[in-house]
């Protein structure tokens, strides 16, 4: 029995760690809930399931910046817990200049749009949009730094060329 457990731990270390941490959470919660009624316990357990255990984390964000004058500023994808990927996410700019995330959507027959993939909880929505906007800001900042660096290199190059050019000779011209 003990050897079998050791083999399982070697084969599935992350899954066993996750199960052990979930067991510990539930044990702590159940100890704290002994004085509550059965209905109150069920409500608390459902709340804990939604809030702590089922919230996925954004593990990766990939964006491609667009050089257009349209509202779409970047298109990309993100991954949740390294297990589920969503493509077609867009970073857009509204009329006031604020950026927001538009999830993949399709056009319906009546001309309106319908989201294909979207988070159901506010917490997950906030974590996804926050991660995507942060990545967008980082990429824009990198792009601006690269442009500034190129501009300064061009300026130093033109200054060096003008300094290397021979100075006009003074004196009588014939």
TrEMBL record:
Q: Which InterPro entries would you find in this protein's record?
A: SpoVG (IPR007170), SpoVG_sf (IPR036751)
Keywords assigned? Cell cycle, Cell division, Septation
Known SUPFAM superfamilies for this protein? SpoVG-like
Q: Does the keyword Cell division apply?
A: yes
One of its GO biological process terms is: division septum assembly
| Start-end of Low complexity biased regions | 145-165
Q: Which residues form the signal peptide?
A: none
Q: Which PANTHER family match?
A: SEPTATION PROTEIN SPOVG-RELATED
Q: What is the protein name stated in its UniProt record?
A: SpoVG family protein
Which organism is this protein's natural source?
Velocimicrobium porci
């Amino acid at each position: 029995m003990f050897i079998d457990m050791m083999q399982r731990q070697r084969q599935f270390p992350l899954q066993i760690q996750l199960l052990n941490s979930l067991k510990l959470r539930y044990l702590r919660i159940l100890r704290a809930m002994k004085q509550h009624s059965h209905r109150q316990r069920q409500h608390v357990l459902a709340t804990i399931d939604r809030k702590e255990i089922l919230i996925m984390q954004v593990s990766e964000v990939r964006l491609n910046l667009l050089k257009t004058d349209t509202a779409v500023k970047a298109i990309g994808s993100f991954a949740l817990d390294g297990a589920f990927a969503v493509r077609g996410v867009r970073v857009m700019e509204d009329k006031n200049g604020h950026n927001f995330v538009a999830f993949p959507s399709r056009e319906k027959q009546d001309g309106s749009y319908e989201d294909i993939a979207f988070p159901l909880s506010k917490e997950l929505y906030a974590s996804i949009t926050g991660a995507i906007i942060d990545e967008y800001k980082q990429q824009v900042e990198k792009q601006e730094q690269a442009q500034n660096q190129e501009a300064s290199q061009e300026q130093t190059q033109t200054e060096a060329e003008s300094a290397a050019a021979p100075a006009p000779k003074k004196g009588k011209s014939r």
